[in-house]
Design goal:
antibiotic resistance, alpha/beta, P-loop_NTPase, binds adenosine-5'-triphosphate, Rossmann fold, ATP hydrolysis activity, 9 helices, 10 strands, globular, six-stranded mixed beta sheet
Length: about 260
């Protein structure tokens, strides 16, 4: 990382409401180039909405999003060419096999055909999908679908990867494979922004992070600075507020009352 490198992702005052619900509330974020950046927060914190606005999938009500100095909403073609995105819950063309889907995405991204073939083979192998390369994506499990989505995000060798819950539904062996891919990608100068609920994962993988709740950043920066001597789990609970109790009203769940 050098001072000359542009900030990989810069969000300023991002805001989005759904009806009366303010999902993202003037959110600022600066992700340095070359780092593995985690976005953590409780359910409904606004992580997916933020990443959708940052990647050109959802138009903000206010604020700006830049990736590598390109304005995502003023110059979407240039900005999107620099990014690989694994969105949450977006449908893939699932009547294609894994290999066909990668070929399709590679062609859309103008990757030369010979490179698409070799990169697809390597990605399918690295993600444990080689044996299902010719199976329809519609017949993939949730974890396999996540992995082929990640392969699609990588096939054009983007400079910035934006991943919404990349480890969700993924088994531990594949998870280790994905970590290795992301570490290598970052070592080679790529930047990763990923959301996750798994604190141990963020702690072991990410250099920097932001804790988000109710659409705002509660804390951000290098991992050790955010943790402040605690585990990330402890610091997270401290920041978002842990409400113990509430289980008193569930007495009917006791199996002995059946
Ligand atoms: N399309 C939508 N229409 C209405 N409300 C929405 C929509 N998308 C998100 N929201 C609301 O915006 C808030 C933020 O949602 P978002 O999906 O961004 O949170 P999240 O941090 O990604 O949550 P999770 O960790 O549960 O995936 C929530 O209150 C959610 O109900």
């Amino acid at each position: 990382m050098t001072d000359a490198m542009p900030t990989a992702m810069q969000l300023r005052g991002l805001t989005k409401s759904f009806g009366a619900k303010r999902a993202v509330d003037g959110l600022d974020l600066a992700v340095p180039s070359g780092c593995l950046y985690g976005l953590v927060g409780p359910n409904g914190a606004g992580k997916t909405t933020t990443l959708s606005m940052a990647t050109g999938l959802l138009r903000p009500d206010a604020g700006t999003a830049h990736v590598l100095d390109r304005d995502v909403w003023a110059d979407p073609v240039a900005a999107k060419a620099l990014m690989g995105v694994l969105p949450d819950g977006v449908r893939l063309f699932d009547r294609l096999s894994g290999r066909e889907l990668l070929t399709y995405v590679g062609r859309l991204r103008r990757v030369p055909p010979a490179d698409i073939a070799s990169r697809s083979g390597e990605l399918l192998e690295a993600l444990g999908l080689a044996g299902d390369a010719d199976t329809l994506v519609a017949d993939y499990s949730a974890g396999m679908t996540k992995k082929i989505g990640l392969a699609c995000a990588l096939v054009h060798a983007p400079r910035l990867l934006v991943l919404d819950e990349p480890f969700e539904a993924v088994d531990p062996v594949s998870g280790e494979g994905i970590r290795a891919i992301l570490r290598r990608y970052s070592r080679d100068g790529g930047t990763v922004v990923m959301s996750s609920h798994v604190m141990e994962l963020v702690e072991s993988l990410c250099d920097e992070l932001a804790v988000v709740a109710t659409g705002r950043v509660l804390a951000s920066g290098p991992l050790d600075a955010v943790r402040g001597g605690l585990t990330l789990q402890q610091r997270f609970l401290e920041l978002v507020g842990f409400h113990a109790g509430g289980e008193e009203g569930l007495a009917w769940l006791r199996s002995s009352s059946a």
